[in-house]
């Protein structure tokens, strides 16, 4: 989406409801958590080093350590970012218009290197990603940075909501910094947790694989088709687990025990492909399966339903079948 279009949308929303009401309705809600209990929860995760609390992040930023904080924040919403962080949105880390026949794909390794370098990040930096509200966009950003081979990338549990709840400062983002050359430490192009359309087709009739549909009920049932898709439906043999089931009511992540109960029996002994509309919600689920439960052989389908529905409805690919779709 062009920034001019975003700006017009913001202006229209503010005009319609008034600035004060707009802030109240659409800004991230403050959430108060017990930081000690939250950090104890991380110790039960397979890879606790990839998660961080607001308390831990504040301490790290105050210490002057090499930490780069990046928020995936929707500019239409009136969220004030974490003070000292950088903010971007999906259009900033998605493929350029015209690169694919459909939208929603991730950008190139070189483009991600340029973004991170512009924030002053190096391969040795601690990179912390966060979002506001439901936090699936932080999961997507985590997935893209992790796939560069960056070792120290962390997900802020509860994101901006918990940061605000702790009373920590928000304000301006994207402060001026001297750009550096960021070089991806180990871009895993052959095995980077990326599922392709061919993999999805092959997995449908393979008992060694499970395909997870992480969308909402109405999308899974084919009752709705979100803008960007080419029609409604579901990938055959999909198992439906709405990605939000991994979250507590306060938007923080559930415990390892709860997440094992949710996913464990379904993925046990299987390789996994997760998908949604455009690979955002499924990236969050991919992070849960790999970093919380320690599962291996987990792939996020970047093209997700947008690419799959394009292949079915537009290209009429005879190998691409749909259930819960339209005839």
TrEMBL record:
Residues 1-21 form the signal peptide. Keywords: Repeat, Signal, Transferase. The keyword Repeat applies. Coiled coil: none annotated. One of its GO terms (molecular function) is thiosulfate-cyanide sulfurtransferase activity. It holds the Pfam family Rhodanese. It comes from the Bacteria. Residues 110-172, 205-317 form the Rhodanese domain. InterPro entries: Rhodanese-like_dom, Rhodanese-like_dom_sf, Thiosulfate_sulfurtransferase, Thiosulphate_STrfase_CS. PROSITE patterns: RHODANESE_2 (PS00683), RHODANESE_3 (PS50206). CDD domains: TST_Repeat_1 (cd01448), TST_Repeat_2 (cd01449). The keyword Transferase applies. This is Sulfurtransferase. It comes from Vibrio cidicii.
């Amino acid at each position: 989406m062009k920034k001019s279009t975003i700006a017009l949308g913001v202006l229209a929303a503010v005009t319609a409801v008034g600035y004060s009401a707009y802030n109240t309705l659409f800004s991230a809600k403050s959430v108060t958590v017990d930081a000690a209990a939250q950090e104890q929860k991380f110790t039960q995760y397979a890879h606790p080093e990839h998660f961080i609390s607001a308390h831990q992040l504040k301490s790290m930023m105050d210490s002057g350590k090499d930490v780069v904080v990046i928020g995936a924040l929707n500019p239409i919403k009136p969220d004030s970012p974490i003070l000292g962080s950088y903010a971007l949105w999906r259009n900033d880390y998605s493929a350029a218009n015209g690169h694919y026949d459909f939208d929603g794909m991730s950008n190139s390794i070189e483009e991600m290197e340029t973004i991170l370098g512009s924030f002053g990040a190096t391969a040795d930096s601690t990179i912390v990603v966060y979002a506001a509200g439901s936090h699936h966009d932080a999961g997507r950003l985590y997935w893209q940075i992790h796939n560069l081979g960056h070792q120290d990338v962390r997900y802020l549990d509860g994101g901006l909501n918990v940061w605000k709840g702790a009373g920590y400062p928000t304000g301006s983002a994207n402060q001026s910094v001297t750009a550096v050359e960021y070089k991806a430490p180990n871009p895993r192009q052959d095995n980077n947790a990326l599922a392709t359309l061919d993999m999805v087709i092959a997995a449908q009739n393979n008992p060694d694989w499970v395909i997870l549909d992480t969308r909402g009920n109405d999308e899974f049932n084919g009752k709705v088709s979100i803008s960007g898709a080419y029609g409604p439906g579901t990938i055959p043999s999909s198992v439906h687990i709405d990605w939000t089931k991994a979250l507590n009511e306060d938007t923080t992540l559930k415990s390892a025990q709860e997440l094992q109960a949710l996913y464990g029996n379904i993925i046990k002994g299987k390789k996994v492909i997760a998908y949604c509309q455009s690979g955002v919600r499924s990236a969050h689920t991919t992070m849960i399966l790999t970093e919380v439960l320690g599962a291996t052989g987990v792939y996020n389908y970047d093209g997700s339903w947008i690419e799959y529905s394009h292949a079915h409805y537009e290209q009429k690919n005879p190998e691409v079948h749909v259930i819960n779709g339209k005839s």
